Amino acid sequence: MNRLYRYNLLRSCLVMICLAYWISPGLQPASAQMKEELCDCSPELTLLLRVNDVRRTADLVTKAGGKILYDPNLGIGNDIPFLVVNLPPTKLNDKKFIDSLKLPSGVMEEIIPSKIVPQAEPAIDSAGSDSTSSAELQVAPEADFDSLYVPLDDIKVPALRKRVAGKGLGEGTIVAIIDTGIDTSHPVFQDRVIFWNDATREGRSPLTRSRQLDGKIELEHNKFVALPEKIKENEYVFSGYIDEKKLGFQQGDLWTTLGKEGVDINRNGTKDDKLLVVVGIIPNPELAKLEEASKKAAEERKAAAAKDEPIPAEKPDLEKRDLTKEYALAFVDVDMDGKFSKEEADTPIMDFNSARKMQREDLKPPYQIMLEFPSRTKRIAYPLLFRPNAKKQVTEITVAFDQQSHGTHVAGIVAGSGLQIEGAAPKAQLMAIKVCSGRSCTDQAILRGIVSAFFNPQGYVPDVVNISLGSHEGYVKRPLSILIQDLSAKFGTTFFISASNDGPGYRTINGLGGSSPAVFVGAHVSANTLREHYRLAEGVNAPEHGLLYFSSLGPSYTGEMRPNVVAPGSALSSTPLNSDGSSMFNGTSMSSPIAAGAAAAMLSLIKADKEYAKVLERQEKKIEAIRKKSSDSKYSLTSLALSMRLALENSALRMKGFTYAQQGAGLIDIDKAYPEFLRLANLTLEPKKQTAEFSINHYSKFNRLYDRSNNIEAHKRVDLDLNIDGEVSDQGSLLLKNTPAIVKLEKVEVQDSDGNVTILDVNGKNEKVPFSIALPGKEEAQGNQISLVLSNSSKSYFYSTRKRDLMERGKTYLAYYTVTQHGEREFSFLDVVHKPIELSDLNTEVSLPSLNLQDSERVAAFVVPQKTISAGAYHRYPIAVTRRDSSLTVMLGFVASSSGRLLVSVFNPEGEEIGYRVIQQTAQLGGDRSNASLTVSTKDEGIHEVVVSTFSGNWLNESKYDLLIEAQRFRVSTDELKLATVDSGKEADKLITFSNSSNQVKSMSASLGGFTRIVPQDDFPILANYRTFRKLDIPEWRPESGESQTTSVRLTFPPDDKKYEGFSGRIDHRLYKKGPDGKMVEAHKGMFLGRGKSFNNIPRPEPGKPYETLYAAVDTYFTVPNDESLKDSQGTITLDAAFPGIPVKMDGSIDLKILTVGRPDVYILQIKGPQRLIDASAAKTKHSNASEAILEIPTQINGISKIKVTLPVTVTPDVKSTLAKQLIRSTIRISTSDSRISDSIPIEITQ
Question: Any transmembrane segments, and where (predicted)?
Fold first, then answer.
């Protein structure tokens, strides 16, 4: 390179540097602009990690600053390959750390959070509903306390209680309620809530260590408060505030940062109160009394010895040894006057759990056990929970409350005891495990909560656990399932889980706790309950037993029978006293606790039965070994937990007109379950008759047994395996695996479109039975029974043969298989096949007056005219949706003179409800809507289920409806379109193809919707457990533009989820500015916009004038990288900032042209982008500006160090530069000659 070239290159570079600095003097690298502050939104992640080496992983987690919350191996060995850990959030994205753990494949997928919600809603009234709003499903009825109840008769609880007079009330049992908490002050519980844990930590308040000086502590600079007399001798105390504003939200809550946090705990109408709290330590006064008595007795003995009198015998000092040496006490400034009054100083509060432990041991707590607020007519009281650190210092205090009522309602169903509310086990004791905050339930809180139910300082172990929460089943074995299996094996506890409220379609079952020994419970409703709860009209012929319309159905994708049983799904029960005190809810959230309470009632009798003594002794021995972390008891209690499930199934009442996928084994009969459980439990004492949970096809999504494909396999391979838990010894494992398992096709059910169920005889000739069992390689040799040896992988599978030629269109076929070992049914699974209705391309004549369709011809349509439906019925129409179908339209209407209320729902092949409508026709129901239409997008081919059911309060007698199901076969070749401007040199011209395979469309037109300006906020820095800030890029404003100087801003996640995939967090509801000290302070407050936020009246920057920079903020809980090896560790995401108020202008226009191709089955739309995008504000600006730049060139010529050169420079602002990062979004609207067929295609234009 010659000297002249180097000189020119240097000159050019320096000019560019000068100009760059002159134009943008404040420009800095993105990293330098990053600001962050600890948001305490997820200070630790609670995760269940499947691991290869437990001991090694535990050491690595501990060294990384994490904590082992639960080691199922109890610190001994590596047999059970998982750990429940608390991790610093940043560690989940630390590639080096995660790689060092050597986790098995699939673990990262399990960590990604899913939406979990309580499975209850207020009972449904029939008036004032709106078919376009889901709110109609949640209108509460007028309470009628004389006729509402917990329907215990339906499951024979009164009959159970008659077995032993005055018993069977749950006495001696503990039930853990995994929910939203329990209002312990409610009179229906009568001090029977013995344990409280807030795993959400939404009620927590941190405390700081304060040194007392002269009986006072300094709260703030020169602000002192006198300590109560009882703790004035403490050298240190811990103090803080119970701040109402900081209560009521869960760490890791995805749904709020809108300032809606806050709980009015003292019920004075505000959420702004701050209550001073101080925690100190005092010696146990009872212990001091005993020591004084002991000292006095010693003196008496000494005096007697001196007088040669008989010396009094020394009494054993057992009480003294059992008493705690000191108490931690909390003092609360209830009246908020900044000091402790005499009454406040004299009424310190104990840790609630410690106090309840004393009461269980027949000791009277010496101090107050709840925080109480004065009220003339109501009791306002909350437990206080002390959280000590490793040094046993109370550094955190929690106010325990149930903000949502759900947990209190569930607890009342289990164990309420009052004049109007009586639960199934009114003498059972309760553990309140709060895992749901006011707005969400997280996997983290559920894991923490369940562990605390079994491993707590008080040593409690629940006999029964109820989980009335749910989420739609996915295709991975959830961490909760692994934990439930392990705890069932260690403690023999039975878990009851709500089936979910996502019905009435097939495979809408709850995914929480699936593939575990848990009992899933669906929602039953009796004719009596309909009369009492739902005001059933007189003369209506309702079925004696039915299902509530929302109750979720199985099977699981694995084929497991879910639900296992059903129980009443509606009840009047307790709600927190700060709401109504009682209410009637319905849902599988009610079914599950009725079943759990009934099980507790049965166990209270079973435990007192002499025939159960050895089983109980074996269980207690195992639990004691677990507590001592001993390996003495090398056996599993899984068989005991499964015995409860099997007993409930074996004794259940089969309900007429429902399949195994709808009702499981049937309606619980707890009285008949008693002897069956006693028999099965005693079998668990024999090592050769132990059992384990079975798995099907290794939980594989790709080999799932339940499949809604249009063309399913004729021979479906079924791999059976034993999911043996880690408590089983080697010898026990061999016994389990080597016990032959007999698989038998017990029943085949056929359900027609009217919901009627026919049972086929599988034991006779099989010519008309559409299912059979076949051996590998011998698919034609079919039978209904086979013996498998599970230890031999080559002989532990068979084929479920589906004979589709024997199946009729529109019907559902269900094969009920049982697995038997040592003469006992151990497991049931289902093979469910829908023979779909295929929509023809031929014209169908339609004459449905109720839908205003007369002598019409339709293509790809299925017509159901004048169909009769009765109370409690479910009509099912499985529809084969093909790749040609873009959407499905469902029209439902009442035939003239019919009356009632009907619900029509559409479910996709995954079992997810994708749309519904409600129609009603009668003056009594109010606001008649005699017909409705629903169109849903069908992105996935496969069998979609359309279900019509009677719905809600006034279940009327037979009605008639017209139904039209029609596919729109006008499919676009793309779901979205990205286009560039012509000047950009990128792709500005594109073609979109529309397939018109059934010739439903004769012509089409296209138009553009409105334009929205989007500025992607790229490289938004994120950091786990931190609130991070980024300068908000806002389009500039110029006076000559004629535009508003303020704008609205909508911050959202972009449509392309790859830009934030694996991110768990939220957009803050505030925009910030820098304060005088450089810290971020609130500048603007926004509102909800989905998961995003919207802001109004935001000022726009004006070139050349000062502008206060605004910053957007993001709270990051944690991030899960897209690939399991964490190759792409995420440090940034992209947000979209939309500015709907700023006009969009362009040179040229977007051209839409429909091309003629000479074929009726294809339409082509040509889209051409504009010449360029322009800022309206730049239209009248001067496009150039003369200036000068000084160039300094270093030199060594004749001692001259540098040369200064002044150069003329013309600066031309680049109009596109302000748009370079911006996008324009709009929608292409497609209209056709068929008014039912339309479409919209999102379009994105870049410069």
Answer: none
